[in-house]
Amino acid sequence: MFGQWSINKDAILSTKLQNCLTINSKGNDYCPLIFKNQVYFVSDFSAKGKNTGQFDLYYFDGNKGQKMAMSAKVNSLFHEGPMGKTKDHLVFTRSTTTNEVEVLQYSPSLNNTVKLTGELDLNLSVLHPTFDQAGQKMIATIREVDSIKSQTDLKMWEGKNTKFPNGKTLTGINSSANDCFPRLINDSILIFASDRAGGYGGLDLYVSFYNDDEWQTPLHLPEPINGLGDDFGLVLNADLKKGFSIVVGREERVEMIFI
Fold first, then answer.
1. How far is CA 155 from each of CA 26, 121, 197, rounded to the nearest angstrom?
2. Sign (positive or negative) of CA dihedral 46, 141, 178, 132
3. DSSP letter string over 202-230?
4. Quick one: pLDDT at residue 62?
5. How far is residue 106 CA from its own chain's centroid?
6. For residue 39, which of 30, 26, 27 has the smallest C-alpha distance?
7. What is the CA 87 to chain-centroid distance, rounded?
8. Rounded to whole angstroms, how far apart are CA atoms 197 and 216?
9. Buried b (16+ CB within 10 A) or exposed e, 148-165
10. Are 34 and 48 in contact (CB under 8 A)?
11. pLDDT tens digits, 46-61
């Protein structure tokens, strides 16, 4: 049995943040995702540097050294993103003409999209999907459709392929404030944003470790990962040493280690 996971605060204090000048535009660039050695993200500026007035999905082509728009099968006349991933697919959300938000699975090899089904089609807006490595568990942000309550919570569904019928709210993680932008890493680390009491202000990043068959009490990440602005959308490489995070209006490279 493993002992209680913890945060290496000394490693975080030595973290070096660097603005991603090659990726960032004059607009909003946020919620990066590392998939098959490419960095995918949401932006309201086109690859040609024009303000589009809507959020679409892009990736940074390291070979060409430039921002590239994703397929027309992904980007539409509605808002897209953020994204999650399974082993072979990207999963993203798309706004609709109603209050609901669709969750779509995209296959790069086939260049097609398929809508996820199940409880996702009921009275919930499902946002910011993230998956385990097998693609059979999805954690996402939920908001009740037509609810007078404005806060968001985290919920987990279990399923496979495109069917995710069984969902449960992560009661041990959620607070009375907004809990959102989850990112599941190596199946045992859940990083998410929250504006709950005890943070530095706005959205801050928290981490929960899966231990003894349950998610442990979330831990607040110290500076410089969190600051006075909104901090969200953290993603790490599999070795947990490098990744990307978001500070309001700015995407930054992050180096950090968990133990």
1. 33, 14, 21
2. negative
3. SSEEEEEEEETTEEPPPEE--TTTS-SS-
4. 82
5. 16
6. 30
7. 16
8. 18
9. eeebbbbbbbebeebebe
10. no
11. 999 899 999 999 999 8
Compute the distance between CA of residue 21 and CA of residue 50 in angstroms, rounded to an integer: 17
Q: Kindly tell me the burial class for residue 255, based on how many C-beta atoms sit within 10 Å of its own C-beta (0-12, 13-18, 19 or more).
A: middle
Task: Give the H or E element holding residue 193.
Answer: strand 189-194
The reported pLDDT for the residue numbered 248 is 67
Residue-level pLDDT at 156:
94
Tokens of 154: 């985290």
d(CA 60, CA 37): 10
Q: Which amino acid is at 154?
A: L
For the domain spanning 9-255, the CATH number is 2.115.10.20
At 40, list the tokens. Answer: 């995918």
Q: Residue holding tokens 């530095």?
A: 200
pLDDT tens digits, 24-46 = 888 888 899 999 888 999 999 99
Q: Where exactly are the structural domains of the chain?
A: 9-255
Residues in the chain: 259
Pair of tokens at residue 55: 């959020």
Bridge partners (DSSP) of residue 185 are 189
**Hey, how many other C-beta atoms are within 10 angstroms of the C-beta on 136?**
14
| Residue 161 dihedral angles phi and psi, to the nearest 5° | 55, -115
Q: How far apart are the C-alpha atoms of 116 and 103, rounded to whole Å?
A: 6
Bridge partners, residue 80, by sequence: 94
Q: Inform me whether the pLDDT recorded for 120 exceeds 60.
A: yes
d(CA 203, CA 137): 25
Confirm if 208 and 216 have CB atoms less than 8 A apart: yes
